[in-house]
Amino acid sequence: MTSQPVYILPKLQQLPGSLPLDGAVRLELQEGIPLLRASTTVQRRITALVRKQQEKTLTPEETDELDRYEEMDDYLSFLNRIVRNQFQAQQV
Fold first, then answer.
1. What is the model's pLDDT at position 12?
2. Under 8 Å CB-to-CB from 20, ≥6 apart: which residues?
3. Three-state SS at 24
4. DSSP assignment, residue 30?
5. CB under 8 Å to 50, separation ≥6 — which residues?
6. Cβ-contact 52, 62 below 8 angstroms
7. What is the pLDDT of residues 6-46, one digit of tens each?
8. How far apart are CA 17 and CA 82, in angstroms?
């Protein structure tokens, strides 16, 4: 019997202020595995902040917002890895 790995979930300190409360995350099927992705609205906001950062300096509030989006992206990636790993473990 193989034991399942224990995953320690990171704790988010706060969400971006511009994050819509509805429709911020969407489910996407990839090879039959449901994965969490940022919505098109959220992706557009991140793209706008990154473009502005490349062209000029972001305000402290915008820098904080972009940092929160990065944390959220890391969190979603972490959850997706857990789901993928679980599906792969079931295939063995």
1. 80
2. 39, 41, 42
3. coil
4. E
5. 66
6. yes
7. 777 778 888 888 888 888 999 999 988 999 999 999 999 99
8. 27
How confident is the model at residue 77, as a pLDDT? 94
Distance CA 53, CA 7 (A): 34
15: left (phi over 0), alpha (psi -120 to 50) or beta: beta
* pTM assigned to the model: 0.80
Domain ranges of the chain: 27-91
74, 63, 60: which is closest to 12 by C-alpha? 74
Place of tokens 């857990």: 82
Q: What is the helix (H) or strand (E) element at residue 84, kind and residue range? A: helix 60-91
Residue type at 79? L
Work out the number of other CB atoms within 10 angstroms of the CB of residue 45: 19
Answer whether 58's CB lies under 8 Å from 52's CB.
Answer: yes
